[in-house]
Amino acid sequence: MQKYLSPVKWLGGFALLFIVISLIFPSISAGIADERVRSGVLIQSVPFVAIFIAVLLIYILLIVLVARRFNGKIPNRAHRPIELLAIAGILFGVVFLFQPLFFVSYRYGFTLVLASTLAFILWSHVVPKSAKADATLPPITPAQQIIAAVIGLVVLAVLSFGAITANQPQEPYGVRQRVWNTYDDARKAEIADTAWSEFNNVDRWFLVVLNLFPSALMFLLVRELVGVFTVREAPAARPIRQTG
User: Fold this and answer.
1) In whole angstroms, what is the distance from residue 44 CA to residue 175 CA?
2) Which domain holds residue 33?
3) Share of the chain above pLDDT 90, in %
């Protein structure tokens, strides 16, 4: 427990301090008499910088806690695929950002790059077991693959349904509300049909592809966890009695 308390005390304490600074600084700056100083960029940026530093410290704290908890405990056969999945997320995110065909990818490409980069940085601080340790592990069974695949598909279905529902086209379908109000019913119906057609043919499938990454991560985690619990619950072999 002590190995967790020290980083929580220092990193968490400083993060809390910067959060407090971001909350109370607007009240302090309001007391500055000089209007030019009070409205200066340096003074106005203090709350933002304080929050940014607090978030950075919390992320560093998360890395430290995860590393101290899982260093030397994750099999290399589980560690490596998760690392490759994060790299794939970065590469796909970059492609989504720079491809010229579909606008929807611009909305989510940066999110995928950011999440995958943060995941890669965190996971790269976790030291797996040695490659030799994988030789002592029981092989992955078909039952592990099936259970993990089923759970991964369920996660994919739930995440995709939520993403599709949350991103369905709504009035005024990307048009300024003031401009939308000037259109007649026929023009509105035409814009709505175009938006729904693009959503059903492009956006819907893109959201499914996007959610393949957390679903694949769940598959890898569940596959190893099922193996761990199977080994723990397996009955011990009875010793063979020698006769004669």
Assistant:
1) 33
2) 1-70
3) 54
